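Title: Comparing notes on inverse folding

I've been comparing how different people in this forum approach sequence design from structure. To keep things fair, I'm posting one structure and asking everyone to reply with a full sequence. Here's the target:
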């Protein structure tokens, strides 16, 4: 990602983006004039999350597509960016796909055979010497089996460490989401409190009007017009309005009042469920589970270290055994030379005495 501004004044750096739903991380080089939209397009190609479904959060800030990174003091070494998939936030959305564990299978070594690994002592006449190469091959085979087991264990252990790192990323993403949720829930809660306060006042006022409607009608009926102003059709204040229309309006208002009261009751119930869900979310503590997992992994690191020490000891013994066999072969060779030397000397002496 580039910029037309001179490099001498452009703040460049690495931007680390974590994917909230799986803990994967991406690192890209950019500068302060890089648009957030360019970062989103990069993340779309790498993570598969559509640009319109991306929600980028840095601390308590939501990144807007048309803004440069400098608007959020990015890139910065001490700030992480978290990508949330809005498609996963819908109530009917499917959970993300299960993480695929790719473990390279390390096969066991082939069984030892003198035909594949011949040794000079295989043809020795002494049974004890002839057995030494077999012992060496068998010992080396057991060492190779142990090394294969150790390598498989180490590979799986590294996979566990990788998943632990990803879970820690998800834990930090959850903290960011909680902070963001706490902020917006606070706004919603305040709006709810203000609405209910206003609603209760209006509800009380409207209820009083509807309850006292009949009494107010009778008051209008009882209030006579001044005799000088009376006519055949207007003898009281009620005659100045159409009572039938007034009663129809009151009936409509009463019906609307009940309907609105029912809607507010539903709204109150939904807010109660929302409040319960938020409190449950805030009370849940995934940190303890991750800490227990981290302690378990560290505890098993001790067994890995023990396996490594055993493999080093076995390797040393294997080399020692090989050196012992070489030493035995050299010793036999020297003995054979001495026997030949003595034999030649005996023949020379015999020729001397017979001469």
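Reply #1:
Here's my take.
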């Amino acid at each position: 990602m580039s910029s037309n501004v001179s490099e001498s004044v452009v703040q460049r750096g690495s931007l680390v983006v974590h994917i909230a739903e799986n803990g994967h991380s991406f690192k890209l080089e950019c500068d302060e004039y890089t648009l957030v939209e360019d970062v989103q397009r990069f993340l779309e190609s790498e993570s598969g999350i559509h640009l319109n479904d991306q929600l980028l959060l840095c601390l308590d800030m939501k990144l807007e597509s048309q803004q440069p990174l400098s608007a959020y003091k990015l890139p910065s070494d001490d700030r992480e960016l978290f990508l949330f998939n809005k498609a996963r936030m819908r109530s009917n959305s499917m959970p993300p796909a299960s993480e695929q564990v790719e473990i390279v299978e390390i096969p066991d070594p082939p069984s030892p055979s003198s035909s594949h690994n011949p040794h000079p002592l295989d043809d020795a006449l002494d049974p004890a010497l002839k057995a030494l190469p077999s012992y060496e091959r068998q010992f080396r085979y057991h060492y190779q089996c142990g090394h294969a087991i150790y390598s498989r264990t180490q590979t799986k252990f590294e996979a566990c460490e990788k998943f632990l790192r990803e879970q820690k990323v998800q834990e930090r993403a959850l903290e960011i989401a909680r902070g963001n949720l706490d902020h917006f829930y606070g706004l919603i809660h305040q709006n709810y409190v203000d609405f209910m306060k206003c609603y209760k006042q209006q509800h009380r006022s409207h209820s009083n009007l509807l309850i006292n409607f009949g009494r107010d009608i009778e008051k209008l009926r009882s209030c006579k017009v001044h005799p000088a102003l009376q006519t055949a059709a207007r003898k009281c204040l009620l005659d100045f309005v159409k009572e039938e229309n007034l009663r129809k309006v009151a009936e409509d208002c009463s019906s609307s009042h009940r309907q609105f009261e029912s809607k507010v009751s539903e709204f109150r119930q939904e807010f109660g469920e929302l409040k319960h869900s938020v409190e449950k979310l805030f009370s849940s503590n995934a940190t303890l589970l991750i800490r227990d997992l981290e302690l378990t992994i560290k505890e098993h690191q001790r067994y890995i270290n023990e396996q490594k020490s055993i493999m080093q000891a076995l390797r040393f013994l294997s080399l020692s055994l090989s050196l012992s066999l070489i030493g035995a072969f050299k010793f036999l060779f020297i003995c054979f030379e001495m026997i030949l030397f003595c034999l030649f000397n005996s023949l020379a002496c015999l020729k001397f005495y017979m001469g």
